[in-house]
Amino acid sequence: MKHNNLKIESDKSYYFAYGSCMNQSSFKGTVPQYEVVGKAELIDYRVAFTRESDKWGKGGVADIIKTSNHIMEGVLYLIPNNLIPNLDLREGASQECINNVYQKIKVKVIYNNKLLDAFTYEVIHKEDFEIAPSERYKNAIIGGTDVLSSNYSKKLIGHMNKLQKESS
User: Fold this and answer.
1) Which of 4, 62, 100, 126 is the most exposed place for a label (fewest CB within 10 A)?
2) DSSP 8-state code for residue 29
3) How many domains does the chain have?
4) Rounded to whole angstroms, how far apart are CA atoms 122 and 104?
């Protein structure tokens, strides 16, 4: 199957990134081979910061929350299946992790008006409130918003800034 000059083989999967993995500088350290497919939409979800970070400094990390009548955006990657365990390890969703932070889930995303099967990660034990992201984590996310629509990027950055302002 062709996809924007991309030949999709059965040994690759679509990955929907919505946090620091949108930032290619951050992502390529974990997954050195990938294709950026483009902006994708996840229907009936929104981004929230529901868990304290273990590695980004004091602050929350991104999560997805089921929310009716909401559309969130993310970066859709095509990655080799043999590199998915690297990503699982990064996201704390690996069998090698003692306390898994995220779980891998299957989602359907919209790309170019087509519904595609992809996977993403969701926080397992969510707080009932949002935790402002650290400046470092926020900047990593902002560094990956160039693929997203400017309207969504502004909303996402505004949400992170609001959480930071409320926590200070």
Assistant:
1) 4
2) T
3) 1
4) 7
pTM of the prediction?
A: 0.90
List the chain pLDDT tens, one digit each, 168 residues: 334 444 455 899 999 999 999 999 999 999 999 999 999 999 999 999 998 887 767 889 999 999 999 999 999 999 999 999 999 988 878 766 566 788 899 999 999 999 999 999 999 989 999 999 999 999 999 999 999 999 999 999 999 999 999 987
Range of the domain at 25: 2-167
DSSP symbol at 28: T
The residue behind tokens 């889930």 is 105
The three-state secondary structure class of 40 is: strand
* Strand 60-80 relative to strand 12-17, pairing: antiparallel
- Structural contact between residues 54 and 123, judged by C-beta atoms closer than 8 angstroms: no
Could you tell me the CATH number of the domain that includes residue 31? 3.10.490.10
